[in-house]
């Protein structure tokens, strides 16, 4: 015999609870951010770069202006980071180049996390043949050396655009997350609340999507942010090595041209041209690390210093 | 305690080796420090000049019969090397080489004609220039005769080339008593058979080319050199060579030792130069700011001279709209070559006067007053507009489009590893963008890949090395050779259609009745006066048709340091492009 409770009776109470939870969550977030000002700085930095990626190219003309008489000009008010080999403002290059770098990072992170989480959850929850097959696939992926493969791929594929770049980096980076998510799933699936869900006859989709996934969301979210930094290093590194197509405002290309074309490591003239993209990468990484620090406390109650 | 001392000594030795430093006790002549511009050091490579990475150094312990002078127009001028003198018959049908009577190997044995013959035999296994088994190749040797112990005669085959002497005298000579065993018994009979045609000849060719790896990998236990130096030891950081007491002109050689430093890239060479470490360094691309620092180091100075190379932007004329000469001319009118050179190669380039196919310095010598009659293609957007309109291109919204209104995008390809080309290409595309032509730069990961893609016809426009003098044939072969469809097969010149047999330039076979490939081929045999006439015609055709747009002509920029040695070749010297070991052989280098 079963008792059916009309949804209409439950709904007001449920939605009220959810709203309260949401309010409490955001209050918690604000509290965690306020506790350490560095976390606010992190959020500000990440927001600044996201704004740069979204609106930066709109601030400048499609073809950046050049000053033929100011090649490798030193920093000044007009050019805070000097100019490049063509007399183009380096700050403008960094700002307009942010979109490619960040978009690639985000695409990589989404693919890495989506693929890694899905495969890890399936392997850990189903165990048995699923686990064996998916983990061998993961092992195979982990054994593929990313950088050499990218170097080889670059000879046959031009990686036109951040989406293609992000796709390749994402497909090369999900193995670690898949393994970690599987471990967590194996641990969580033995807990009482999963047992109870099974006992209630809830579907696998519900158990994975509504019971397991929220428990791992903080871990996954943090990995996603860290994957962004990894993707930025990887793509900038490839551009720096000169194996990817030229794009004058790509940060890696700027580093390459500053070192190999401008001699930035030997003379000071091209040093600002080298330092500007380096500083951008450093700042963005710092911002992400500070945000991850805040997220760690937000999602992990044991770290909260109430 | 003793054990500790031994460990400390070993650790010090290991540290020295790890740092790539070779301990070199200096004698009165001192240690001359330089780099090898042709290759980086691979300490595991055999001491073998046939190995591209071999641990031998041209001019120091690897010797040619003679050393080519840096002449503007004459490829047949040389400084003597192991050959004391040489004679040729008219048309270079035969070259007779007389070796130095007192030339000896570093083990005391005399250098003989047999050594030269063995060296030529080994060169056949590697192929190329005068020593090829390809039937009908122009300028291939047909017979090698030992006249006496110090005289050897090399006879040219039926398809003559006036670069034969140059190629013969460039032969690197190795000792027969070390390398002779690499040539199997009956090698010379096989070589004769390989020069023919048919299955037997093919088998003989395969037998000879099958020796390639055996020769390249051969590792003599020690260096046996006929040059002024002999390899003492080598590690990943540097090679140390000591003076060869048996060198025929030992009295002219001043340094006791030569240290050849290794490098991983230009930046390391710049740092060596900035620190004043190098007594001399061959051509190295240097940014203007770095050049300033190099010049400010005590004793450092720069020597500049003719460099028979130019950088150009080459078109695939099989691709639209580059099949239309008006489009190519329009682009030429829009490119400020001086600005490109200032950005890309301020220290090692001069903007090309115009497009002739020839380096600017030698163009004056080849063309004389005719040079002034050619179109200089000075920047002129109005003329460019007229040319584009003549090609049927249309301008909409400030941007030029194809005649059918479809977008036109100039994709300029360069290899990523050539930083001056990348900067030049970026500057060109910026200038084209300024004039309403959508242009961007696309790079290839490395030069070999770039050349492969270029040859496969994948690019519309790409950077191209040209004007490779001083031989007039070599100069125009870059424009009207195999890359543009003309190839010499079995002694017959043929033209392949665009997209076939490496024809990626896709130019027309005849232009106003002139066959530029045929004219270029005739340069192989022409007398100096005939060459001048042909060069004039080809330069005019090139200037009008623009299969390429010549951007800048390279300047050979070398570095010297006057703190320890003197007697350097002056600016523009004919010896400037030769290794410093040859300068020493010529008695130029003195201790300060």
From TrEMBL, chain A:
Q: Which domain of life is it from?
A: Bacteria
Kindly list the places in or outside the cell where this protein is found, as annotated in its UniProt entry: Cell membrane
What membrane topology does the annotation report for this chain?
A: Multi-pass membrane protein
Q: Which UniProt keywords apply?
A: Cell membrane, Membrane, Transmembrane, Transmembrane helix, Transport
Which stretches are transmembrane? Answer: 40-60, 100-125, 137-157, 163-181, 220-244, 264-292
Q: Which PROSITE patterns match?
A: ABC_TM1
Q: Which InterPro entries match?
A: BP-dependent_transpt_permease, MetI-like, MetI-like_sf, OppC_N
What CDD domains does the database record attribute to this sequence?
TM_PBP2
Q: Name one GO cellular component term.
A: plasma membrane
Where is the ABC transmembrane type-1 domain positioned along the sequence?
A: 98-292
Among Gene3D superfamilies, the record links this protein to: MetI-like
GO biological process: any one?
transmembrane transport
Q: Name one Pfam family in it.
A: OppC_N
Q: Belongs to which family?
A: Belongs to the binding-protein-dependent transport system permease family.
State the PANTHER family in the record.
D,D-DIPEPTIDE TRANSPORT SYSTEM PERMEASE PROTEIN DDPC-RELATED, OLIGOPEPTIDE TRANSPORT SYSTEM PERMEASE PROTEIN APPC
- Protein name, as recorded: Peptide ABC transporter permease
Organism expressing this protein natively: Sphaerisporangium melleum
UniProtKB/TrEMBL annotation, chain B:
Under the heading PROSITE patterns, the entry gives: PROKAR_LIPOPROTEIN
Q: Does the keyword Signal apply?
A: yes
Where would I find the Solute-binding protein family domain in this sequence? 78-484
Question: According to the lineage, what is the superkingdom?
Answer: Bacteria
Q: Which GO terms describe its molecular function?
A: peptide transmembrane transporter activity
Q: Name one Pfam family in it.
A: SBP_bac_5
Q: Does the keyword Signal apply?
A: yes
Q: Which residues form the signal peptide?
A: 1-17
Any single GO BP term: peptide transport
* Record's keyword terms, sorted: Signal
Protein name (Swiss-Prot/TrEMBL): Peptide ABC transporter substrate-binding protein
């Amino acid at each position: 015999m079963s008792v059916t409770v009309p949804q209409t009776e439950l709904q007001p109470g449920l939605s009220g609870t959810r709203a309260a939870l949401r309010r409490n969550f955001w209050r918690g977030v604000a509290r965690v951010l306020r506790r350490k000002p560095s976390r606010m700085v992190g959020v500000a930095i990440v927001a600044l770069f996201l704004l740069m990626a979204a609106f930066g190219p709109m601030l400048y003309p499609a073809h950046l202006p050049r000053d033929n008489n100011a090649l490798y000009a030193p920093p000044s008010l007009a050019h805070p980071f000097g100019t490049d080999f063509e007399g183009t403002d380096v700050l403008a290059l960094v700002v307009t180049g942010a979109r490619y770098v960040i978009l690639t990072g985000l695409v990589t992170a989404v693919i890495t996390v989506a693929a890694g989480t899905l495969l890890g959850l399936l392997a850990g929850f189903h165990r048995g043949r699923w686990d064996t097959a998916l983990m061998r696939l993961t092992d195979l992926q982990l054994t593929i050396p990313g950088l050499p493969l990218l170097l080889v791929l670059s000879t046959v594929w031009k990686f036109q655009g951040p989406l293609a770049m992000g796709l390749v980096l994402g497909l090369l980076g999900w193995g670690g997350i898949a393994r970690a998510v599987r471990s967590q799933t194996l641990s969580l699936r033995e807990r009482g609340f999963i047992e109870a869900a099974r006992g209630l006859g809830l579907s696998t989709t519900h158990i994975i999507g509504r019971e397991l996934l929220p428990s791992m969301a903080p871990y996954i979210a943090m990995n996603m942010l860290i994957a962004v930094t990894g993707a930025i290093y990887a793509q900038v590194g490839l551009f720096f090595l000169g194996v990817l197509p030229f794009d004058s405002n790509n940060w890696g290309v700027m580093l390459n041209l500053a070192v190999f074309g401008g001699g930035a490591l030997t003379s000071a003239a091209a040093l600002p041209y080298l330092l500007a993209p380096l500083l951008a990468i450093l700042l963005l990484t710092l911002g992400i690390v500070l945000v991850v620090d805040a997220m760690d406390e937000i999602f992990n109650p044991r770290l909260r210093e109430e | 305690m003793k054990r500790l001392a031994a460990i400390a000594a070993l650790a010090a030795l290991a540290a020295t080796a790890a740092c790539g430093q070779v301990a070199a006790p200096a004698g009165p002549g001192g240690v001359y420090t330089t780099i090898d511009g042709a290759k980086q050091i691979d300490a595991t490579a055999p001491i073998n000049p046939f190995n591209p990475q071999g641990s031998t150094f041209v001019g120091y312990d690897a010797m040619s019969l003679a050393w080519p002078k840096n002449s503007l127009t004459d490829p047949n001028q040389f400084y003597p090397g192991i050959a004391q003198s040489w004679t040729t018959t008219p048309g270079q049908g035969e070259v007779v080489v007389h070796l130095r009577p007192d030339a000896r190997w570093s083990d005391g044995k005399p250098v003989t004609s047999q050594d030269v013959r063995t060296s030529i035999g080994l060169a056949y296994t590697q192929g190329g220039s005068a020593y090829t088994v390809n039937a009908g190749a122009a300028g291939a040797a047909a017979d090698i005769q030992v006249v006496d112990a110090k005289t050897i005669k090399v006879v040219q085959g039926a398809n003559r080339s006036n670069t034969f002497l140059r190629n013969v005298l460039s032969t690197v000579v190795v000792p027969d008593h070390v390398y002779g065993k690499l040539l199997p018994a009956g090698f010379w009979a096989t070589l004769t058979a390989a020069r023919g045609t048919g299955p037997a000849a093919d088998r003989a060719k395969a037998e000879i080319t099958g020796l390639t790896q055996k020769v390249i990998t051969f590792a003599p236990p020690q260096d046996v050199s006929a040059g002024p130096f002999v390899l003492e030891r080598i590690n990943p950081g540097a090679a140390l060579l000591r003076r060869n007491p048996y060198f025929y002109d030992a009295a002219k050689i001043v340094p006791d030792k030569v240290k050849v430093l290794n490098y991983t890239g230009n930046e390391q060479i710049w740092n060596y130069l900035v620190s004043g470490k190098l007594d001399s360094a061959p051509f190295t691309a240097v940014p203007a700011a770095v050049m300033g620092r190099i010049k400010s180091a005590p004793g450092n100075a720069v020597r500049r001279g003719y460099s028979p190379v130019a950088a150009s932007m080459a078109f695939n004329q099989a691709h639209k709209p580059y099949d239309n000469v008006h489009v190519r001319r329009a682009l030429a009118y829009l490119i400020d070559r001086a600005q490109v050179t200032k950005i890309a190669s301020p220290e090692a380039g001069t903007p090309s006067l115009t497009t002739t196919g020839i380096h600017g310095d030698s163009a004056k010598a080849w063309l004389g007053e005719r040079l002034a009659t050619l179109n200089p293609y000075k920047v002129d957007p109005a003329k460019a507009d007229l040319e584009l309109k003549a090609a049927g291109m249309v301008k909409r919204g400030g941007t030029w489009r194809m005649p059918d209104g479809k977008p036109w995008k100039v994709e300029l390809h360069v290899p990523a590893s050539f930083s001056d080309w990348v900067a030049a290409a970026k500057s060109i595309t910026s200038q084209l963008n300024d004039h309403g032509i959508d242009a961007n730069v696309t790079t290839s990961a490395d030069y070999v890949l770039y050349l492969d893609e270029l040859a496969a016809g994948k690019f519309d426009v790409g950077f191209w090395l040209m004007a490779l003098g001083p031989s007039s044939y070599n100069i125009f072969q870059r424009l009207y050779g195999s890359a543009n469809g003309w190839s010499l097969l079995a002694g017959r010149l043929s033209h392949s259609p665009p997209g076939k047999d490496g024809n990626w330039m896709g130019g027309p076979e005849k232009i106003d009745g002139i066959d530029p490939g045929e004219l270029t081929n005739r340069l192989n045999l022409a007398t100096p006066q005939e060459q001048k006439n042909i060069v004039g015609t080809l330069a005019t055709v090139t200037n009008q048709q623009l299969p390429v747009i010549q951007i800048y002509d390279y300047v050979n920029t070398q570095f010297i340091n006057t703190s320890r040695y003197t007697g350097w070749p002056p600016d523009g010297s004919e010896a400037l492009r030769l290794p410093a070991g040859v300068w020493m052989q010529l008695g130029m280098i003195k201790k300060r």
